[in-house]
Amino acid sequence: MVTAGNAPSLGPALSRLADAAAELVGARYAVLSVVDPERGLVDALFTAGPGAEELRRAARRPAAGAGLAGQLLRNPRPLVLREPTDDPRICGLRADAPRPGGFLGLPLRVAEEVFGNLYLARTEGGAFSGDEVRLLTVLAAQAGIAIGNARLQETARLRERWIEGAAAVTNTLLAERSAADALTTVAEQARVLADAAAGVVLTPTGDGGMEITAASAPRDPEGLVGTTILPGSPVLVQLLGGEPVFIEDSATDPRMTTAVRTRFGPSMMLPLQSGGRLVGTLALPRRRYGRPYTELERQLAARFASQAALALVLAGARADRERLAVFEDRDRIARDLHDLVVQRLFATEMMLESTRRRATEPVADELLARAVDELDSTVQEVRTAIFALQQPPADASATFRGRVLRETAGAAALLGFSPSVRFTGAVDALVGPESEELLLSGLRGALAAAHRRPGVSRIEVEIDATAALPSGGAGVRLRVYDDGLREDGTRGTESLTQAPRAEPPDGV
Fold first, then answer.
1. Mean pLDDT on 384-410
2. pLDDT at position 425 over 60
3. Staple partner for 247: which of 181, 267, 276, 322, CB 3.0–4.6 Å?
4. Which residue, among 5, 48, 50, 31, has the nearest Cα to 92 in the 3D structure?
């Protein structure tokens, strides 16, 4: 967070105030320091007066709690020293700096809150008078009010920025369809809001650890995604308990064990938790030796993480509802195909078969036989389509029939058309594990070979679980036919793969 002491709009005003204070009382130099109350350090330093250039070369930034600065913070009252040259509380000057003859220290305060100090010193003219002290006290009060107002404005602006960012993430997550995209959105938005070197989201692993599954890092992003925190890590124990972890220096903190920790300094690790459910962890590391996070930034980031976790849960629930609606619709289509289309095709096939038996002319008999065969093939393909509709498309199928359909669907993306697939017999019950791998390997090889042949417009895949092996035993036969152009100029290639049939379970 940019503090009021070094904000571009406030800096010139404080510099002019230091100039005015030095000129008003004829001081050799004036120093106006702004204190960071959380870190106890001087956050900004403004110098003025005839000795300003000498002071800039000689001055250092002491800790706010040291010397006169510390005394003014602990006891915020005007401090007048008549002969301060040898006073041990005068710190921050080297031996070659201009030594003060009369010294005045004033706290910059509003009510009970101290924002910094104003120091003035003379090398000639002795101590400051009471009137001068009262006059400069008014100037110091104005500086305190300016710094206080600037910090209030910065706090309000920062709160508004985080609120707007959280709202933007929520809107984006509810519109996203991919879980990976949703996590990346959270990491990217949080990184920008926190002014961090990287934004990463870790999700729980099966062994009780956590893994970085999404990351946003404009500089040096290599090696972030896939980095894991092993089970039992002190940081992990705290995160799994729903508690945030704040780290001053990731590279040296013994709790950090990942290989990428050496790139980063201050860091926040915030649990993404909603309704007692831990969705993951949001980590926001800053670059090495970067500015530590303030208490306000920690609070705002924790609230952002809570809202982002809720949005992730809602987005996941919405995606689940959409998938369920798709499955229900596919199931309805499959039932309609089975109850209406297949039954009508089967009835038509029976009618044609009956007519063929009564036909007397050989030509009519041949035509009817071909029509019956075509209808039978159509019924088989419609049944295959029904089975495919009943399979969850995003999940790997555990059945042999489902794996065959997945292989052909993958080939369709390369071929530009879908191969026809036909099953004969109870293939899921009659194909054992070894035969399944053999047949799938043969299918992949045949589809790859067909893709390489020119002019392929049709591929037929037939799996017959009622076939006989050349040895006479029961087997399963895979036939893949394509109409591509062969090397000899002819069209049509057939590939056969055979495997032993498993013993069917009872009742099959």
1. 67
2. yes
3. 267
4. 31
